[in-house]
Amino acid sequence: MPELPMPVSALRGAALADGSTVDVRLARGRVEAVVPAAGGTVGPDELDLTGYTLLTAAADPHAHLDKARSWDAIQPPMGDLGLAIASWKAHTISMTEDDIAERALAQALEMLANGTTAIRTHVDILTTGDALRGVRALVTVREHLAGLMDLELVALAGPEAPDAAVEAALDAGVDAVGGAPHLAADPVTDLRRLLAIAERRGTPVDLHTDESLDGADTLLEFARIVRDWPQNVSAGHCVRLGMMTDAELAPVVAEVVASRVGVIANPITNLYLQGWESPVGTPRGLTALRTLLDAGARVAAGADNVRDPFNPLGRGDALETAMLLVVAGHLTIDEAYGLVADGAREVMGLPAAGPVPGAAADLLAVRASGLAEVVASAPADRIVLHAGRIVARSELTRHVAAPASARSPLLEAAR
After folding, report:
1. What are phi and psi of 179, to 5 degrees?
2. Residue 314: alpha-carbon gap to chain centroid
């Protein structure tokens, strides 16, 4: 296999999600043209995508690379958000900058191999020892990944993190202000504190928001405060919306749409963390996806935590997130993939990408007959392009024992 990253000038014979077969010409990191497939010989700097479905590459708008892959070291109890937070805080006492960087880089590369070319990761401002260990580790990881993927860092400031630490994280290279005001004793005061820092610094904002099935409800106030802000603003989780009545939900959604607050669902982690107190008729830990989409809100979805106290599982694969949006969120397959690709990029403030003339050439080719098979089977054969260059390629070799009889009645019926 040629050394990666590898630039290509054209993608030949690719199937799009609408079923058409096309050739895609690339130049200067963008899609130059999309034309009906012409067939013929594939050139040396072109890529034959016969048998592949070509999509916009995935983007993950809500990750925690500093926590990823820590489950085995921590061995936390399985349970709700409170247990997860307590387990993580206890572990941070002995956590080193090198450990954070190593785990974060491994997780980011796995996500890249699976087709994610842009990640927004929160990084904790730690409350034990050196508060900026995670920040420095993730800045280093971003430098290592330059040219392979886009990596955006958000300072996750808990209620106990002082303003000076948030400012120091921004000075160290973090891109946006984050936090979790719903965990504070006075959620609205903490919300206003974090937004004041972002307004003063002119940085984007991405807050963990109302991550519980009851209790704090801060999203309405959040949206009102940022109504006329020029910078990008988003709210992660928002599972409280999923438990509201229509009358309660309507004014919140209206304000979210008016203020263009992006809402980021995180199905795998919220399905795991929420509802432990309700063993019968367990509620879904998801935001009000259908209502938000129908209202025209900016909506995206991320994988959130992967193999850490907040989620013991996860593949770091946007197709896993899309599948959960369909089966747990009742979205269509097209809508679900849109939330982890085009919708995610829009909420992250990234330029549009995909097999469209003029778009950024961040693309994912999956060996499959169409989008339904891509999401259902998550085939391992994938080719990932970032800025018009192949940055990852995976191919599966499978060996299956032959049936006892090639003329089996079961095989005949299957044919």
Report:
1. 170, -170
2. 12
Hey, what CATH topology would domain 58-348 get? TIM Barrel (3.20.20)
Backbone angles phi, psi at 236, to 5 degrees: -95, 150
> Residue with structure tokens 């990823």?
68
pLDDT of residue 183: 94
Q: What is the mean predicted confidence (pLDDT) over 246-250?
A: 96
Its pTM stands at 0.95
Cα(262)–Cα(343) distance, integer angstroms: 9
**Confidence band for 412, pLDDT divided at 50, 70 and 90:** low
CATH 2.30.40.10 in the chain, residue ranges? 6-56+355-394
CATH architecture of 6-56+355-394: Roll (2.30)
* Cα angle, residue 32 at apex, residues 29 and 36 outer, rounded to 5°: 130
- In angstroms, how far is CA 15 from the centroid of its own chain? 24
Six token digits for residue 3: 């050394």
pLDDT of residue 216: 82
